[in-house]
Fold each of these.
Amino acid sequence: MTTPQSPLFPHHLEAQSAHLPAHLPFARYAHVSDLQHKFWQASRAEIEPFARDFGALFEFWGTPDYIWPPYPLYAWSRIWEYPFVHRIIAGIPKKSTILDIGSATTFLPFYLANQYSSTVAGIDPDPYHLHHFTACAHEVQKRLAVKHLPLPVQTRGDALPYPDAFFDIAYSVSVIEHIPDPLPTMREMVRVLKPGGTLILTLDVNYPFGTQAGGLSQSALQALLQTLSKELGIEIPLPEAPLADDVLLLHNSPMRNFSIPKIPASYYLRQPKAAQNLVLSKLRKIVGNAPRSESAENLAVVAIVVQKP
């Protein structure tokens, strides 16, 4: 296997983008300090207005059966992941066809389709996917004056209904770790990617490795990277462990520094599980020694960006 040095950004930007992959392949932990970098801040500023407007539409399509935060951009890890994925996609010259694995009904595929006039396929196996995605698309088009909409496709990631070399970009945001066996999905994402196309992944990993958390173990992450390396014919090593005080975790995430739009009571009336989580969260703040969820506390984020030869 070889390790090609494929430039992702123009040379005049490389010196300014130390926190972004100037060359591929790229595998790296999310750092707290990244969020102070001007590229992260600029990327968040670009997508934030649409994300907030999109979230304000949730009461038109939310139901008790569909649990999803209306403003996912402000989740502890997503404030890093969404700007990262957007910045990478924005820097790719050709993006006429984009694949989102595990999209659910979130703002990003809608933003990308409209911003770049791209054909964006949102893949999700959830039985409510088509209903909620389509209902939301109607409201987004009507209320946000969106001209280009993504396409909802309800299917499994390990059996994509697309021919070989179909997409310019394939990405997934914090989904891979929730798939019982993610390797077939990885192979499918590589299969449908065009030569020269870009694969972008963000995923939760157990931190430190050895803890019982809700992310990938070290062996699972290694197996995923080995599968990608084999499918692409390049070598993708395990990311280096960051300094402990800089790795992005739930307890040090700056998500509380952001002004999150107030969620009306109607949202919690429609989504009782979300109401339950809110009550537990407030109790945790009141009772400081309440036991915390290890699956949430011991998670870190790894980002992977590779280019198909």
Note: The first helix runs from residue 11 to 14.
Amino acid sequence: MHMKISELHKIFLQFGAITTDTRECRPGAIFFALKGENFNGNKFAQEALAQGCPYVVVDEAQAVEDERILLVEDVLTTLQELAAYHRRYLGTPILQVTGTNGKTTTKELLAAVLSRKYNLHYTKGNLNNHIGVPKTLLQMTAEHNLAVIETGANHPGEIELLSKIVDANVGVVTNVGKAHLEGFGSFEGVIKTKSELYEYLRTKGGSTVLLRGDDEILSEHCADLTRVTYGLPGKGYAVEGEVVACDPCLRFRWRKQGGEWHEVATQLIGAYNVNNALCAVAAGVHFGVDEQEISAALADYQPTNKRSELVKTAHNTLVVDAYNANPTSMAAALENFTLMQHDHKVAIIGEMRELGDASAEEHAKVVEHLGKVGCQQIWLVGENFLPFAEQYKVFKNVDEVKAELQQTPITNSLVLVKGSNGTKLFTLPELL
């Protein structure tokens, strides 16, 4: 007999914590025995109990040899259903964020602004997939009066699934760009997947979309929904704003339609972050955060986690953006680097992964763009750049770059370090 979700939720409320990792088993955390290609949590049921877990949720009958082991049809689905049940049980208003680029930065800025007024629960790190989202929702308690949940996707249907679990009241798609083309099949596939959030909000009714009005593709996909728009001045958006300077951190100004201008000096590198900041402003306005508080939150926010950080070392100034790379974010980083003034600019660029058939063409575009950035030195890292070895220095991997830096160090330079996580360029700053 399989366990009912309502019964499981009663047990969950007694303890208030879950884990899916045997290394994190502890008294008071219910262990969910997930399965993957290379592991099977069902085999660790006894071990989890021995480590103090009060209950274990399994989906293989032979694992049941104790009344503290609860049998369900499928552990992952049960985890997702429990999270959806818990979310509806609490009834907390939720803002859901998705998009190709800037999701995590936008989510962090939204959290900075909204936590000025609310006891806010929000996605930590990038726990934004089919396992991370349920875990995040299950950490929500009755103490929280608002939540910001980030949802990511690298294939169709994923946002639809996550939207049903999250059941948001307010949704934002930051943008649509060319990432994970392999999983989506095409740019149209990316657009369709990201707009699955709009589809869900349509069925829910009474919901709102935060929309960058200057994004024509997204505007078209949510024309029939209640919208709070943000974007460039003079177009009638609810919140309007523009870049004031980028030297190297973004300064921008914003106002509510017909209101007073506010100027904010952020600690974010990159003019492209103005859209992420305006999205946070729009959320603040929608949720009634005081205007001075909105500006203060954005000025105080310090980016971490290798997303466009400005790092001053003993020898150089670095712009480190080595967490992910796709054609859209690469173009944004190069445009921003072009705006930055320095006598000696160096670009160390890692290849982009997961682009499928579009890979060769997109890498060629990056090389072409690099030629216009005004760099004195350009280093390319990864096999996808090998066709361009005649023009530039190409390294097969990060270890070759490290060896080169030990031989001929870079000094007195402004250095852009940009590449997808897999290229491991984030290990370079200590040598620069």
Note: Residues 91-300 form a domain with the UDP-N-acetylmuramoyl-L-alanine:D-glutamate ligase fold (CATH 3.40.1190.10).
Amino acid sequence: MSAVMSTVTIYHNPACGTSRNTLAMIRNAGIEPTVIEYLKTPPTRAELEGMIRQAGLAVREAIRENGTPYAQLGLDNPSLTDDQLLDAMMAHPILINRPFVVTALGVRLCRPSEVVLDILPSPQQGPFAKEDGEVVVDASGRKVSR
């Protein structure tokens, strides 16, 4: 299992329910990931750019608006370049949307949290329900379709 343990990293905010649910699903697969509390230890600019690119996102799609200085900084201005947006994310890590999960199978911004199921190297070990009670994995460890 140690090989699997070292292949999953979550950029986590413990105050975020989506991030907590994602971490719990990783652990439900029998994996203890590397947990990086990105507000305390932000990724480097190169790491952030790489995760955004590997996740197939535009830089603007990786910015969190709610509960951040997004509006005060004028980041809704469509003329801002990716470099300017990345500068803001590096200066204010709270602007980095969460949680990003990195595995050998890919990188995803796990919103909703069950997106993580697509890139975990191990199957779910049993049922899983989010903090709000929504069941996302059945008793057989299979993703529940909606």
Note: The chain has four helices and six strands.
Amino acid sequence: MLRDKKGLMNRRQVLAGLMMGVASSAIGVPVLAGPPKKSPRPKPRKTTLGQQPARGVEQILAEAKLSGEIGFIVADAASGKILGAHNPEMAFPPASVTKVVTTLYGLDTLGRDYRFATQLVATGPIENGAIKGDLYLVGGGDPTLDSDGLGELARLLKEKGVREITGKAYVHSGALPYQKSIDPSQPDYLGYNPSLSGLNLNFNRVFFQWKREANGTSNGYTTTMEARAIKFRPRVAMSSIRVVDRKSPTFALTSTLKSDKWTVAKKALGKKGGRWLPVRRPEFYAAEVFNTIARSFGIQLPTFKAARIMPKGTVLANWQSERLDVVLQRMMKHSTNLTAEAVGVTATQARGAKPAKLRASARVMTGWLQSGYGTKQAKFVDHSGLGAANRLSASDMRRVLFKQGWDGPMRGLMKDIELRDEKGKKIKNSPIKVTAKTGTLNFVSCLSGYVETPKKGRLVFAVFSADMNIRAKISKADRERPKGARSWNKRAKKLQQKLIENWVASFDA
């Protein structure tokens, strides 16, 4: 969820009308020895998606009217033979296409059956409904844990007959190194740029809801902060918000060791609404939510304190995530940045490294990709692609996708990309099947994956576009919705489809 050399292929011996950059020998069409003696007049015929004649790629790029740089590559999925390319070795910020690499890194290191675990551990026995000792809420780095998961832990604790504890309550989050945010250059209030911890909850976001009311206690508004899931949505005190009279900034945050105190500009709020805000101390967020839910089960617990060391004890309740391949498939579909970072750092630690920062973990992943796939331009600073300093070339992505193969695990974890007509409407029953990963930052748009043509041909491709000059001029306060970014991205996506259609026309010719 991302909201915040040059050189064409040789065009000789390309059939007239085929996409520039696709060698005729690469698609199995013989080159004409010479011009015909007489030019026949073609009969007009209707064309539909997947049947249009190919055009010159330079014309397609010019019509896109896209500022910045563009790089792409397309290859036969069976042989790996390159069928067309433009700036294939140029390195771009891959945005969320980075998650393709993170997915493969996680599966290769941890295995598809890996599960994250969150546990309740007691240091003493249970007697007459009381734990004679301390209780620990222990995180295992699970990026998918939500309030409903904590509800299941509370239910399991109740099944053990627990109503209270005689000791203290602790929260342990040392499974992963704490990161205040994924990308510090992004505004503090963006929900897709959360903290990372060994104990994460609700993707480390809290739901802020507001409604203008005469009796509202916050400058004429009633506000709530909730740890929303499907079954449980308790209100939260550690993350609070006040509506204030000011023009800017829209949001401001004061974060302490155990709390987040937000203010929001009144002028930015309408009559009512809601949005997710990030949580900067996720372990205390999870501890408070668990305490509230436990009370609903009749279990009285003291306020949780942070624990640096995990003592030996008895596991009273264990909540596990789904299998890693399922977790990653959902990450690829919804592009959740927290999941990518948690999986990436967990994989790095499993390889024996002890990264204190995301950059250190990303360097290990970079080395893994270079040694296993022979990439040349790859360089990562995180595992989600949120950082604009990540780099990858279209040629590198071709190597990755081709090595994975058409029937490898990657294609099954990607999502189907819907093609659109000239009016922007979704095309039903398109003869072109695209399965890929998207990537979007301000003035960065990427798409990479697999294509099945109407004649059952198979392609692998990558299209990267970026205008880093415009991006560099955006102030931090404007990085959620900078001027011109939406229209630029729309043109970039249209270009991606035009290129795919052209490749299909060339390959199926």
Note: The chain has two domains: 68-111+325-507, 117-320.
